[in-house]
Amino acid sequence: MSVEEGLPTYKEVPDNSGAPPPNYPSDLAAEEARPVMTGAEPPPSYDSLFGKIKDARNEHGNSFGFLKALAAILGAAIGGIVCVACVCALMAFPIAQLVIGLQNQDDCTINKNIPLFLIVSGACGCAAAVLQVFDQMCCSDTDGNGERKSKCPLLGFILHLLNLFCFAWFICGNVWVYKVHKTVKFDDADSEEYCGKLVYLFAFWSITAVYILMGATCVIGCGCVCIMACLG
């Protein structure tokens, strides 16, 4: 059979002039089919954190104000959960102070205030940690600019008073512990200069560690400032 014999004639072609054209989805229908984000569900912003840091640097430059703004931005980004976890981890130290002080409160003849220093420091540290966790979980809120605002001003006032007392108590501990550093004895329990080795050394390094951390913080802070100044 030839090609001409296989083709239908004009009369054999069906007449579809009365039938409606096929329905294809228009661009408008496709746009309507797409999910629409309302104002209550803004798209995620992946550069908001870096944008805030850039704005803070443009506003403050390479100054201490930028470091404060950077700390505030990072603190808000990290969130309260990490802060609570860090506070709970740091509670191990004041708990250790409290336990060692209570177990050895009569084991320091040279100065009975040394175990008392550990007991009060541990109790205040635990109280401050608990209040800080409560403030982060229940009494903190953010304003329209994303800055943290406390809903419990009384709790903040109590925390300030507690921190002030801890500072004064820390100074007292410096006097009691360092004053007898060269005369304390650990072996002769009947001596008037005796103090239990555990309780004294724990009190000594509790105080000394604070100064070590302060020095390390100053060195790191000065290094960051120098690096920022060099980078321009």
Written account of the structure:
By secondary structure, the chain is mainly α. Helices cover 65% and strands 3% of the residues. It has helices at residues 3-6, 27-33, 48-60, 64-78, 80-90, 92-103, 113-138, 153-179, 197-231; strands at 140-142, 148-150. Strands 1-2 form a two-stranded antiparallel sheet. Helix 3 (48-60) runs antiparallel to helix 4, helix 5 (80-90) packs antiparallel against helix 7 (113-138) and helix 7 (113-138) runs antiparallel to helix 8 (153-179).
SSE blueprint:
Layout: H1 3-6, H2 27-33, H3 48-60, H4 64-78, H5 80-90, H6 92-103, H7 113-138, E1 140-142, E2 148-150, H8 153-179, H9 197-231
Antiparallel strand pairs: 1-2
Helix pairs in contact: 3-4, 5-7, 6-7, 7-8, 8-9
Count the beta strands.
Answer: 2
Largest sheet properties: 2 strands, antiparallel
Q: Which structural category fits the helices and strands? A: mainly alpha
Helix content: 55-70%
Measured distance between first and last alpha carbons: 87 Å
Q: What integer value in Å does the Rg equal? A: 35 Å
Q: Would you identify the regions where 5 or more consecutive residues have pLDDT less than 50?
A: 39-46
Tally of DSSP helical segments: 9
**Which shape, going by the Cα principal axes?**
elongated
Percentage of β-strand residues: under 5%
**H/E element order:** HHHHHHHEEHH
In round numbers, the mean pLDDT is: 76
* Strand line-up in the sheet with most strands: 1-2
